[in-house]
Amino acid sequence: MENGYSSKSLPLDAPAGIRIRGPLSEPSLNRILSREALQFVADLEREFRPRVKFNLGCRREEQARYDSGELPGFDPATRELREGDWSCSKTPAVIADRRVEITGPVERKMIINALNSGAKVFMADFEDSLSPTWDNIVRGQKNLCDAVNRSISFEDKARNKHYKLNDKTAVLFVRPRGWHLQEAHIEIDGEPATGALIDFGLYYFHNHSSFRSKHDGYGPFFYLPKMQHSREAAVWNAVFDRAEERMAAPRGSIRATVLIETLPAVFQMHEILYELREHSAGLNCGRWDYIFSFVKTVRAHPDRLLPDRFQVGMTQHFLKSYTELLIQTCHRRGVHAMGGMAAQIPIRDDPAANDTAFELVRADKLREVKAGHDGTWAAHPGLIELVTKVFDDNMPRANQLHIKRDDVRVTEADLLQMPRGVRTLEGLRHNTRVGIQYLAAWLTGTGSVPLYNLMEDAATAEISRVQNWQWIKYGAVLDGEIVAVSVSKELFGRVVEEEMGRIEREVGKKRFESGRYREAAALFARQCTKEDLDDFLTLDAYRHIVKFVPALQARL
Ligand SMILES: CC(=O)SCCNC(=O)CCNC(=O)[C@H](O)C(C)(C)COP(=O)(O)OP(=O)(O)OC[C@H]1O[C@@H](n2cnc3c(N)ncnc32)[C@H](O)[C@@H]1OP(=O)(O)O
Ligand SMILES: O=CC(=O)O
Ligand SMILES: [Mg+2]
Hints:
- 45% of the residues lie in helices and 12% in strands.
- It has helices at 35-67, 79-83, 108-115, 134-148, 195-212, 230-246, 263-266, 269-275, 287-297, 317-332, 351-371, 384-394, 412-416, 425-443, 458-473, 489-507, 509-514, 517-529, 537-542, and strands at residues 18-20, 100-105, 121-125, 153-156, 161-164, 171-175, 182-188, 191-194, 221-224, 255-260, 280-285, 337-338, 376-378, 449-451, 454-456.
- A hairpin with a 4-residue loop joins strand 4 (153-156) and strand 5 (161-164).
- This is Malate synthase.
């Protein structure tokens, strides 16, 4: 035995070609990686890995075109499909009313709290709000199994608090990782597995039959993140077909909502729905990744520098156009158009600030329901009552599929219009302070955190990173300074140093020394100052959280 791990903590009964490289922290997790479950995910991996790799290659090719000056737009080749008359399969009754959805990582206590929160849906997250440590991934699957079969409970000994499910709970959706992330701790035929297929496959394998016996045979339900093109949706559709076939589940029983959260995908919404038409549960405005993707896509265009992050709100023309087009598209195809996440969360120790935060959430949700959204997201149980009321007051039916928004006329220029606002030193400082603290949490296994009274997760951290990168790369001139100041590596270096000092003062010396702040700062600074922008912060950061069983230590 070395470092607390023993070969006994590895599941030993893996089928041929599968190697589990991460330790299991308790024997009850073994069941998640049963021989049959691993065989199921390995079959998916072997069938779909080539298509996943092909699609990632297409992303690189498309990005090279944007880097040489092109901008994304509607595809002339699929015009007939966009203009044609077709619908997605009818939405199952159990998810007809999705007015408020709570989201959160697949953490045991939070799953119980979210399911009990009074929201219609809980989206359990392996993605933006989860740091994908091996333990979080496997434990998250176990937590979800226990939630689906209603045996989940949690004991908070320190607070003498016992958690269990209420009789009435939210409907469960699960968001697997995006196509770009690998699961290094499961090797299939000598290569790391595709994270998305591991998350989907293990969850589907263990839970499909429980869903079959309820919800009129529909489910499990999924959210699908970060796609860039309809050919990626076609892969998900084929994965769903194969999973249903293997488990003798009715075709179309799996339903999934696609997040439109990349700039290229906004030009592909009809096409994405078409590919998934038998499995679709609509689209969602993933605003935070969308803003991140906007910057990433135009990274080679020096004339497209974003203003401060706080000014890129949903009333900016490009974001308003995106949400309206999404609503029109979904309602033409007979599926839900879900709203996104306001970043404000309850502020316990400051009633005035709490009131302001609630007012901002109320205004955001009012805008969404009036625009025609069928529901929206909430980040915290303390917001469910408020958000529900806004939708109840303005949406008398279960949804607004009948509101077609034929008045909406959105062009490529609308979707690409630059947001207005100023670029400030405080914006650079805030991005840096938040980016470093978020990464420090992520490296220790926490994927969503409250920072300065806002929810921060991987998508919001990405905005901080790419905005800094863009300003440094193109020497953005800052507004509001007495003498002209442009952002440079030297200025950024000073900002990192000063913000590290501030973080240390804010979190205290003890926490600062025992945390991973210095490692996070080095990682964040490296990412912000690279000559060429990395596609995802989490790809670089993932290397820092991979922990192989020492006896099997090898290069990633
Ligand atoms: C860009 C996107 O993808 S958005 C979607 C992804 N992001 C998310 O899902 C973020 C979800 N939200 C969260 O993770 C949390 O609300 C945070 C990290 C922002 C704040 O969490 P905390 O600091 O723990 O909040 P707070 O202390 O006020 O929590 C109070 C209680 O509510 C619970 N709670 C807070 N948020 C949630 C949630 N989203 N789901 C379930 N329970 C929650 C806490 O566990 C705590 O429970 P307890 O009283 O039984 O101990
Ligand atoms: O996933 C949601 C987002 O806003 O990003
Ligand atoms: Mg996202």
